[in-house]
Design a protein that fits this description.
The chain is built from 14 helices and 18 strands. It is an alpha+beta fold and about 500 residues long. The strands form four sheets. Strands 10, 11, 12, 13, 14, 15, 16, 17 and 18 form a nine-stranded mixed sheet that branches. A four-stranded mixed sheet has the order 2-1-8-7. The longest helix has 21 residues, at about 240-260.
């Protein structure tokens, strides 16, 4: 027996400096293509209504593209105005973008043997006044996220304020046997073994999804059944924001395609039945210092933590959280983009509640502080870097991860830039169960948007966040209105739910 068979693998701690996406390098493309019999490349983007769109290019044609100084394909500038079969106001037939592929984003498509997928950036095809050729256009969600995290703003960058981020996702979905009528694959609930019995078609689907994610280089941390009938969850590991958003899109594509292959339909719709749990995309964000000159040790209690020694957040986490909460009402326009999204955001159903609040391990707050288990090693427990992260619960699977992260991280960076005080205190009790006086004392005074209209109005009124996000806000509001009109064409609620699950 080899002497190293009993050696455990070594795992480095997650950090923005060392945690990277496992993608296919351009240098290894030829070898990978030969080994996996690759014949096609899916050039992929996500529009403003979270539609995942592709153009499939034969491998030989893709390799020819790579010989260009700006490898990409031309696409009409109306690309961000299309909503299913119509174009939103403000978008027309004139002009083209160049969609330049991002060579750092190539992945195998286990759900489509012989295919690779690749993301990219929408850029001006020819020079445009006031813009630098070769940079993302203002309407491109992926470019907007990248700009917020990595590139210079007019007043700051993430790195200039000593902040970097890791992001992970919980992807909840429901497997349906039929969309008309709506029929789930089974009636079983949360973490039930009956939802994953050996030999059943749904177990085969879930296991194929799990294997596919791992084979495609995505860290799958766990999967299990969730609380609603036919509902499952895939938990994927932390990555830098842009890579995390790309990985989530690949996760969703894997889920929907594998389900379709086996005759099922996977839906991320927020809530199918008023008496059952809904589906979310809980978004986990950790905040890290960029350099060792500004460490993230748990040195000072936040003013909202009452100085308790076992419940600390760093000063950097505090100002980031203050920014997120300060702009959360406006961010909901992106994180909860449909009227149907608000059927899930209620008090008492563990979906985050209806008050702008946060709390340690409080699932009735829209922002949950997740703290690590206490260490038994006193040396590790003393002056250890923070292992906290925030779970944003007011996000569902109809939202674009690029827009979600752009708005949440942009909000947090506004808090970092202004060194905003954290007004809201740690809610150890669900805010809805507090008296008005108790909420006032805890700094919990603002309600979450209770409707699609309220969220959009909050975004339109938030000049600071609009300034961070730039030119895509007006386009997003326009296509959202067109999508809303489309989703409400059916005459009955049952028909509207059917349309919702078929689109999402």
């Amino acid at each position: 027996m080899s002497s190293d068979t009993n050696v455990s693998p070594q795992y480095a701690p997650y950090s923005p400096q060392t945690t990277k996406a496992r993608t296919i390098s351009i240098e290894s493309l030829e070898v990978v293509a030969l080994h996996h019999k690759i014949h096609s490349v899916r050039i992929t983007w996500v529009d403003l209504v979270n539609g995942i769109r592709i153009r499939v290019v034969p491998l030989k044609s893709f390799q020819r593209l790579l010989a260009s100084s700006r490898p990409g394909i031309t696409i009409t500038q109306c690309v961000f105005g299309f909503v299913v079969d119509r174009a939103a106001s403000g978008f027309g037939p004139i002009g083209e973008y160049l969609f330049v592929v991002d060579l750092a984003s190539m992945r195998l498509c286990s759900y489509a043997p012989g295919h690779l997928s690749i993301m990219g950036w929408f850029q001006d095809k020819v020079p445009a006044p006031g813009r630098v050729l070769g940079t993302g256009v203002p309407m491109c969600p992926r470019s907007t996220l990248n700009r917020i995290v990595e590139l210079t703003w007019t007043f700051s960058t993430a790195k200039s304020y000593n902040a970097a981020f890791l992001v992970g996702f919980e992807t909840e979905f429901i497997l349906l046997k039929s969309t008309n009528p709506i029929e789930e694959v089974n009636p079983h609930g949360w973490n039930s073994t009956q939802a994953l019995p050996s030999g059943t078609k749904e177990t085969e689907v879930i296991e194929e999804i799990a294997r596919g994610l791992v084979d495609d280089g995505i860290e799958l941390m766990m999967y299990h059944s969730e609380a609603a009938p036919g509902q499952y969850e895939m938990v994927t590991g932390p990555l830098p924001p842009l890579e995390a958003a790309d990985a989530l899109i690949h996760t969703r594509e894997t889920i929907t395609n594998v389900a379709s292959k086996h005759g099922f339909h996977a839906t991320f719709a927020p809530r199918l039945h008023v008496d059952k749990c809904g589906s979310a995309t809980h978004t986990h964000i950790s905040v890290h210092p960029v350099d060792s000159e500004h460490p993230s040790e748990l040195q000072h209690p936040s003013q909202s933590l009452a100085g308790t020694s076992d419940n600390l957040i760093t000063p950097l986490e505090s100002v980031f959280l203050a920014g997120v909460l300060g702009h959360l009402q406006a961010s909901c326009a992106f994180t909860l983009p449909l009227r149907a999204s608000y059927a899930r955001m209620l008090d008492g159903i563990w979906s985050g509640g209806t008050w702008v609040a946060w709390g340690r391990d409080n699932r009735e707050a829209p922002v949950r502080l997740c703290v690590p288990a206490a260490s038994l090693d006193p040396e590790l427990a003393t002056n250890a870097p923070s292992k906290n992260h925030f779970e944003i619960k007011c996000v569902d699977g109809t939202s674009s991860p690029y827009l979600v992260l752009a708005s949440l991280l942009g909000s947090g960076l506004l808090g970092i830039q202004s060194q905003a005080p954290l007004v809201e205190q740690d809610c150890a009790t669900p805010a809805a169960l507090m008296t008005e006086a108790e909420r006032e004392a805890a700094g919990v005074t603002r309600r979450m948007p209770m409707s699609w209209e309220e969220a959009r109005a909050a975004l339109e009124a938030d000049e600071a966040l609009k300034g961070v996000l730039g030119g895509l806000v007006d386009g997003f509001l326009s296509v959202g209105e067109t999508l809303d009109e489309l989703l409400h064409l059916p005459a009955t609620e049952a028909e509207r739910v059917q349309m919702l699950v078929e689109y999402y």
